[in-house]
Amino acid sequence: MRTTSNPAFRNLPNSAGGYANFDYGQGSQPGQTQAAPPQATRPMTIDDVVTKTGITLGLAVITAALTYTVGGAAVALAMPAAIVGLVLALVITFKKKVSPALVIAYSAVEGVFLGGISWMFASMFNPGLIMQAIVGTLGVFAAMLVVYKTGAIRVTPKLTKWIIGAVAGVAVMMLVNLVASFFVEGGVGLREPSPLGIGFSLLCIGIAAFSFLLDFDAADKAIRAGVDAKFAWYVAFGLMVTLVWLYLEILRLLSYFQND
């Protein structure tokens, strides 16, 4: 399986062994046959991916909506939810065993975080901003799915390295901006309603969109390799991470144009 910029997909079994052992039956030497690899309880299918992704997204939407309705208190819940979500994401990423409960918990907590952030943006700017960001996020997701399925952009090793490097690059830039903001108001200007801020948000949106191609490719490879159906939870988690990032970037970008 190709490398992906989304760390969640790195937990999927790869061609080195396990469920995705592509070397099965070839033998280490001429005339020899390897023992059959461990068999999955049930191979993962696209239906498993769609179902698990639907569950995680649906739960996030429900908790986000409930949090949004509590008004100003939603903002107070956003930061704790963000911290808990980060911890859960790290545990899910580095945990060797699939844990549906952790993925579900992450989705619920992220919903609380998104609900709080959304209420804050709605109160500061325009409530209609939220629906615009949701539509934009779903639109980008659908567009990249079509791009992937039609093969308009092929996921090559070169493209994969470029996207991974771009994700790492923007992460470093965000960290630098955050540290700088402790000393100078606005940091280096990456998150300000300025040409630089708008350009950076567009860059992040573009990278997040292309990250979907790697996510789809990793999921597709896992399905073809016949990995255990339970790994669909990892796929759902990985897509959730990218969707959350994309939504936040679109929401921030739209907010830049509200005071014009």
From TrEMBL:
UniProt keyword annotation of Kinase present: no
Source organism superkingdom: Bacteria
Coiled-coil boundaries: none
Membrane-crossing segments per the record: 49-68, 74-94, 101-122, 128-150, 162-184, 196-219, 231-248
A Pfam family this chain is assigned to: BaxI_1
Keywords, ordered alphabetically: Membrane, Transmembrane, Transmembrane helix
PANTHER family linked to this entry: CONSERVED TRANSMEMBRANE PROTEIN-RELATED (PTHR41282)
Protein name: Bax inhibitor-1/YccA family protein
Originating organism: Saccharopolyspora halophila
